[in-house]
Amino acid sequence: MTDVPLKAVPLLYERYAFLDEAVPYLPLGTRPTPVAPLPGLADGPADVWIKDESGYGDIAGGNKVRKLEWIIPDALARRSPAILTFGALGTNHGLATARYARAHGLGCALALVDQPIDDHVRLQLERLEASGAVVHRTRTVARTYAAAPWLMMRHGAFREGRFRPAYLLPTGGSSPVGVLGYVEAGLEIATQVSAGLLPEPSYVVLPVGSGGTAAGLALGLRFAGLRTRVLGIVVNDQLTLDAKTIVGLANKTARLLRKRTGNFTIAGLQPEDVTLRRDWLGPGYGHPTPAAEQLVRTSAAADGPVLEPVYTAKALAALKDLNTRRELGNGTVLYLHTYGPR
Ligand SMILES: Cc1ncc(COP(=O)(O)O)c(C=O)c1O
């Protein structure tokens, strides 16, 4: 497979003069991530391709790293002593944030809600401990909200003569700044389409845990002029994740670009511009489903992408069912593979 050569600077900087001064960026992975056909796992009338984010980043992988490329330099520019972020006990986002924060001289505190504990979660908790992050088990979303102001102060510090609270990073890194990572990925998909490496997809299918990846892609694809629709498979029932909230987040990111560049002219997205399906969630966030567990095994046996049961296997199980039911048409469907264990 040949890659499109990309310059070291992000595609967003190429589009916007002066953005590099207003929104700092720190490369943490190798762009572009590869695209390739994905036969055998979700066959049907639509031709299924994969964009594989698993190799992006060295000390953590998957979709979190692109968000951190904008978040870490933003926290550094604000002279924050630490990042405070949120998730469930098995949080991939928390682990990636903790590792990259530490590598760049920032502290990290995590407020974590409960999720069913299995071997994967136990292992993840050990990794979190080793990452140097301070873990607060806040158990429920309501208690997490209540504790957040106190935790911001608790993990703040005096810097350059001023008390600076911890940098508040929403669950999943899905702040308007973090979302820029997937605006960039949307532009990257467009360069791969125009280089003839990937047919223009009718849909990008991906798991939705906090919504930032889907929001960024929707904005980036619109921005690049592709007709590709974002089809998000909701795997989290602990947050409000509907088309209105995803598009609201995308539009906040558009406002950030408008404010910092002065010339962002893309029309706002509407809720009809993204599709969300929740039929593959099963009993709830973190609860495995038989279809997802089966797909983890099938993919491993076929030497396919490494799936996990919480996000990626549910998304691919959805793609498989929808393709079998002919609900995706007969064009190209791109599965965004967001898991990257290290
Ligand atoms: C492997 C994996 N895929 C997908 C997601 C969801 O991405 P987002 O939180 O941007 O919706 C996450 C984290 O939440 C994740 O860890």
TrEMBL record:
A GO biological process held by the record: alpha-amino acid metabolic process
Pfam hit, one: PALP
SUPFAM superfamilies xrefs: Tryptophan synthase beta subunit-like PLP-dependent enzymes (SSF53686)
UniProt key word Oxidoreductase: no
GO molecular function, one term: D-cysteine desulfhydrase activity
Protein family per UniProt: Belongs to the ACC deaminase/D-cysteine desulfhydrase family.
Name used for this protein in its record: Pyridoxal-phosphate dependent enzyme
